[in-house]
Design goal:
By secondary structure, the chain is mostly helical. Helices cover 67% and strands 4% of the residues. The chain is built from ten helices and three strands.
């Protein structure tokens, strides 16, 4: 197993939470590879903790969909296929379209203005070829904020787990190096600012479908022998 790099966490976090955050970062960054086996004792030794918080972290990561267990294999990083990734995008579309419809009706003008500013910053990072992790972090923040402003808090946790699974694929990095519309997130927020739920939903649907095609294409390309 590769040596694991510890990530920054809140000093008030429990040891189990800090262990979870460390492992989650290793998975979504690609340091821990899809299909890689993880043992309680091995991970505990690498992170310098006892087995108990690692077991707690494993359970949380399994709930997130980032780890899977199989008889004879034990615990391993989830392996994503084109079909399983497509399923995650279909789920994302349902979540985000509903969030967009509600957000345009419940968010205040000030909150929508803040969303627009966040979207402009994200589009600037994309257009200036900022490091992928900086783009992912802000994209994660923007879409979660839309879900939060929808007033349906149940959507937030479901979307967060969905985003983590999609981020763990290699395609989530490669997709940011492919041709895409300019100001795509600004246009999305402008649609939400229209206060028309149908307009907001259609803009989000198109945004999610475009993201799905980019990531599926990138994943397919990266799996080819000559890629």
């Amino acid at each position: 197993m590769a040596v694991m790099t510890k990530v920054q966490s809140n000093p008030t976090d429990t040891l189990g939470t800090r262990t979870y955050l460390n492992l989650r970062q290793q998975i979504v960054s690609g340091q821990l590879k899809p299909g890689q086996r993880l043992s309680l004792r091995g991970v505990a030794g690498n992170l310098g903790v006892s087995i108990a918080p690692v077991g707690e972290a494993f359970r949380e990561l399994a709930r997130d969909g980032l780890l899977e267990s199989e008889p004879g294999w034990g615990t391993r990083v989830r392996q994503m296929t084109v079909e399983s990734l497509k399923s995650q995008h279909i789920l994302r579309k349902a979540i985000e379209c509903e969030a967009a419809r509600n957000c345009c009706e419940t968010a205040t003008d000030q909150q929508l203005a803040e969303l627009l500013q966040l979207a402009a910053e994200l589009d600037e990072r994309i257009d200036s070829d900022a490091p992928p992790e900086q783009i992912h972090d802000l994209d994660f923040e923007l879409h979660l904020r839309i879900a939060e402003l929808s007033g349906a808090l149940g959507l937030v946790e479901v979307l967060k787990a969905n985003q983590l699974v999609r981020m763990m694929t290699r395609g989530s990095v490669l997709a940011h190096h492919r041709e895409k519309p300019t100001l795509q997130h600004v246009h999305l927020i402008e649609a939400i600012k229209s206060r028309d739920p149908d307009v907001a939903e259609q803009a989000m649907r198109e945004h999610c479908e475009r993201s799905m095609q980019l990531q599926l294409s990138a994943m397919t390309t990266s799996s080819r022998p000559d890629s």
